[in-house]
Amino acid sequence: MTRESGVTADPGVGGGEPLVVIAAVIIQRGRLLVVSKRAAPDVFYLPGGKPDHGEEPLEALIRELDEELGVEPLEPRLLDRVESVAALEGVPLHLTVFQAGIDRPPRPAAELAHMKWITGDEPDVHLSPALTDHVLPLLRRTGALAP
Fold first, then answer.
1. Checking CA distances to 84, which of 8, 17, 94, 108 falls within 20 to 30 Å?
2. pLDDT of residue 17
3. Any residues with CB less than 8 A from the CB of 120 and at least 6 apart, and which?
4. Which pLDDT score, from 0 to 100, does residue 15 have?
5. What is the total count of domains within the chain?
6. φ, ψ (nearest 5 deg) of residue 22
């Protein structure tokens, strides 16, 4: 794994066209919000999704959080850019991660199956590779989540 100018990369990540995703780290009371989709209800990810053609990352984040959870991000800031493998597709994943608060309690909608607030230590919750390999370690290092 290499780290340069805020970009985390895994050399040799899967083949195929990269999946570009914008996502949000939303933490409340020391817990991280994760969601699962109806297509794979047992795999949890950060909320967010693919940007539309010509859409800037922050615009995509605002749209996706509204569509998926009915919330608006408060004071979003770029947290990291991660290269990993998409959990279901098995292709390279280019993930732009923002950290933000939210303006109201989230409620799953659109293609979401479930949402959970986690510490990252739950043995019965299957998390995406980007979460387990990159985002959770970063949040623990920065003190956002308990070690």
1. 108
2. 85
3. 32, 127, 131, 136, 139, 140, 145
4. 58
5. 1
6. -110, 130
Q: Which CATH number covers residue 85?
A: 3.90.79.10
* 27 domain-assigned: yes
CA 85 to chain centre: 13
Mean pLDDT, residues 66-85? 97
Domain extent at residue 101: 18-141
Contact 128, 87 (CB under 8 A): yes
pTM (whole model) above 0.70 = yes
Tokens encoding 29:
């009371």
How far apart CA 52 and CA 28 sit, in angstroms, is 29
Tell me which DSSP letter residue 111 carries.
Answer: T
